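Hello,

I think I submitted the erythose-4-phosphate job twice by accident. Can you confirm which output corresponds to this input? Input:
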Amino acid sequence: MKVFADTSNVDEIKRLNDLSLIQGVTTNPTLMMKEINEQKKTKQPGDVSHWHEIVVQICEAICKPVSAEVTSTEVGEMVEEGKLLSELNEHVVVKLPCTPDGIHACRVLTQFMDIKVNMTLCFSVAQAVLASNAGAEYISPFVGRMDDYSAGSGVKLVKDIQNAYLNDLSGSRAPKILAASIRNVEHFNQVAEYADVATCPPKVIWDIFNHKLTLSGLEQFNNDWKKTNE
Ligand code: E4P
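Support: Only one job matched these inputs. Its output is below.
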């Protein structure tokens, strides 16, 4: 399973990428808003980046897939915005919501413009099937939010989507399953069996190293080594 960073913070992305911990990035309007508000605290108004600039900075920093989400909701506007986003950098993957307009825009962008699409806000197998038929490159089931709203098990949704894609006889090329809204390492462990990608907040990625047996084992090895007086 590949690991993407779910953040718009360029410094954090560079840090994770420099350590070879990530193979891509996902952003969304909320994450962009947070990053812009952070920049407003330390920069002059003229130096705060437009969100398109942040997308370009991330793409140039990692040269790997970067999902950038449209903010429009009507199909024609989504297609125009998706085209514009894809022209920012070759690594941009256009993120569209699982709505009728989003599915239609996905079809137009993938079939006629050869633009890669990540269908986001997926909460059912049915939405994942429609995204597959529309030619999406990625489908993003939201694991944590399913759990937050007691809408069923998020991990089971990922498993069910994988099952549906594996058993699909329609001839559609299945999207990669990008498990999103990952809240903790346990989610990561569980979706690893079914997903192609997990996109995680940086904290979850760092938490992977916080295994008490790794930490205590290392301490013991280091202490024993010191006793050799080598
Ligand atoms: C996915 O691409 C989204 O950006 C993200 O995973 C949403 O997660 P949240 O539910 O923590 O906002």
